[in-house]
Design a protein that fits this description.
Elements (H helix, E strand, L loop, with lengths): L8 H20 L8 H20 L4 H27 L5 H28 L7
Helix pairs in contact: 1-2, 1-4, 2-3, 3-4
Protein name: Four helix bundle protein
Pfam family, one: 23S_rRNA_IVP
Organism: Lacihabitans soyangensis
């Protein structure tokens, strides 16, 4: 039974992604990227879970869905930052592919959650 956003499978998976990215940034990114790429990727990965949490607390399904869509955008933004990190040689191909797999899973789970919310929302009352 889902009582809180922390019970959602999509949140759990995206939280683990956020943790993995945080560790990666702290261990692999050079100091001169601290306020550049490192900051951007940390912000985008944090936005994924933050928007899932915020959407869950909204009273209306449509608002929750909108926050999930923002979260999905943050997933893709995070992937772009990871590709940039790969291009700059901060991470290797294996690290990029591992994180891309996690991002893809997060996207699938988000899409499933959005579809669930769409099916669950009450139909519009007819006038």
């Amino acid at each position: 039974m889902i009582k809180n956003f922390t019970d959602l499978e999509v949140y759990k998976e995206c939280r683990q992604l956020r943790i993995n990215i945080s560790i990666l940034v702290k261990t692999k990114f050079p100091l001169d990227e601290k306020y550049k790429l490192a900051d951007q990727i940390l912000r985008s990965s944090r936005s994924i879970t933050a928007n899932i949490a915020e959407g869950f607390s909204r009273y209306y399904y449509k608002e929750n869905i909108q926050f999930c869509r923002i979260s999905r955008g943050s997933l893709n933004e995070t992937l772009e930052h990871l590709i940039t990190a790969f291009d700059e040689k901060y991470i290797n191909d294996e690290e990029l592919m591992n994180l891309k797999t996690k991002i893809d899973l997060g996207g699938k789970l988000l899409n499933g959650y959005i579809n669930h919310l769409k099916k669950t929302q009450k139909p519009k009352e007819e006038d």
